[in-house]
Amino acid sequence: MHHSAYRLVLASIGFACLIGLSGLVSSVWANPASEAALSAADQVAIFKAAGAIQRKGKWVICDPPADSGAPASEALIEQVRDINGDGRPEAVVTDGGIYCYGHAGVGFQLLSKQSNGTWRVITRDAGILETLKTQGVGGWPDISIGGPGFCFPVQRWNGKAYTLNRYEYEGKRCKPQR
Q1: Which of 48, 153, 133 is closest to 93 using CA atoms?
Q2: Would residue 177 count as lying in a domain?
Q3: Looking at residue 113, what is its pLDDT?
Q4: What CA–CA distance (Å, rounded) separates 113 from 89?
């Protein structure tokens, strides 16, 4: 299913009910890879770099207070691939829960393996990550961050960080409703 179709489905069923959306990222990143394709050491390094902690055998990033009634969501490494052409992999870690991610119900972190073998968070946000064909500095793809609505922020890598570049819906520029 095309990414914009996911956005339509998500918007129509109500984001308050969406606690475990992390699997959607894998559908928008080509060449899916599982955690099994990574070494155990890389998996641990990715989760730790993302700020996850192990709790009852699963990695957790968003851990709502016990009195909130919201369950902790398991963080997952959704995709691993080289998105900027530098020969080293990037990984997307997703986590769910409206307590931490509001109406989007899901958050992501994009990490990159550095030349010294460590993993570094490049960007993180609430919403659904989609890489686009347009690029910023160093071959880094622009990223669209999906969530409620029909006009989504597109961020571009400026050499140091992903920053807002424009808003789009299905590849066409738009103005978000405020």
Answers
A1: 48
A2: no
A3: 97
A4: 6
What's at 174, amino acid-wise? C
- Measured over the CA atoms of residue 53, residue 21, residue 106 and residue 108, the dihedral's sign is positive
Distance CA 178, CA 6 (A): 22
Domain membership flag for residue 157: yes
Question: Does residue 66 sit within a domain?
Answer: no
| Cross-strand pairs, 76 | 94
92 in a structural domain:
yes
Q: What pLDDT shows up at residue 36?
A: 52
How large is the average pLDDT for residues 24-49? 70
Please check whether residue 164 is in contact with residue 120, taking contact to mean a CB–CB distance below 8 angstroms: no
Confidence of residue 8 (pLDDT cuts 50, 70, 90): very low
Structural domains counted in the chain: 1
Domain membership of residue 122 as a residue range: 3-61+73-171
